[in-house]
Amino acid sequence: MLLIIDYGVGNLGSILNMFKRVGASALISSRPEDVRAADKLVLPGIGAFDNVMTQFRASGLEQDLIKKVLEERRPVLGICVGMQMLGNGSEEGRESGFGWLDAHCERIPDAPGLRVPHMGWNHVTAVKPHPLTATLADDARFYFAHSYRMVCKDPADALLVANHGSEIVSAVQRENVYGVQFHPEKSHRFGMELFRQFAAL
Asked: What CATH number is attached to the domain comprising 133?
């Protein structure tokens, strides 16, 4: 079972509908027993980093999620701020992230003619091969909406990058931990293909 974690944050219905369209058996739930039973997990996130981390920790699901990811080695996919939660923290706030990636989030630098937040469609480029992204078309583009970018201490953790005046790490992967800065659920056929591959891992 693929579980979309409901802790009051994220485009839960849109994510569920996209997984259903690719034939995946998925569920939205906030129940600890569903987290414990899941084969794969999706961690959505929208908004300010501290608010998202605080709300997740208040849900009471953190220890069950940690066990699934670190002990059982189940795949987890963080989306948008959900990806940022996988790292150590963000200069947007003071809360700590999960620390599953040695990474920190910083504000996207200003660049001539480009606005922050980075909002809208942007092309991505693969920086390492992986089954999650192997079937993406060369012209793959995704919908972004964020002001902070993840900086990975180990460049090998980056999976996809985009450019918005400077490099934006758009997807990450380390062992069973995955994250995407963009919104696959808003990215039409490209997002559908990425969800299909995550469900097939």
From this structure: 3.40.50.880
Catalytic-residue membership of 72: no
Determine the Cα–Cα distance for residues 34 and 42; give it in Å rounded to an integer.
12
Catalytic residue among 105, 146, 164, 185: 185
pLDDT value of residue 59:
97
Residues contacting residue 189 through CB under 8 Å, at least 6 positions apart: none
Dihedrals φ, ψ of 111, to 5°?
Answer: -145, 145
Structurally, how many domains does the chain consist of? 1
CA atoms of 47 and 63, how far apart (whole Å): 23
Q: Is 188 a catalytic residue?
A: no
Give the active site residue among 80, 92, 118, 193: 80
Cα–Cα–Cα angle for 102, 177, 154, rounded to 5 degrees: 30
80 as an active site residue: the answer is: yes
Q: Which of 118, 146, 183, 193 is catalytic?
A: 183
| 6 pLDDT tier (thresholds 50, 70, 90) | very high
Q: Rounded to an integer, what distance in angstroms lies between the CA atom of residue 46 and that of residue 15?
A: 13
What is the C-alpha to C-alpha distance for residues 18 and 164, in angstroms, rounded to an integer?
27
> Which domain range does residue 101 map to?
2-200
Residue 10's pLDDT is what?
87
Task: Please say if the pLDDT value at position 152 is more than 90.
Answer: yes
pTM: 0.97
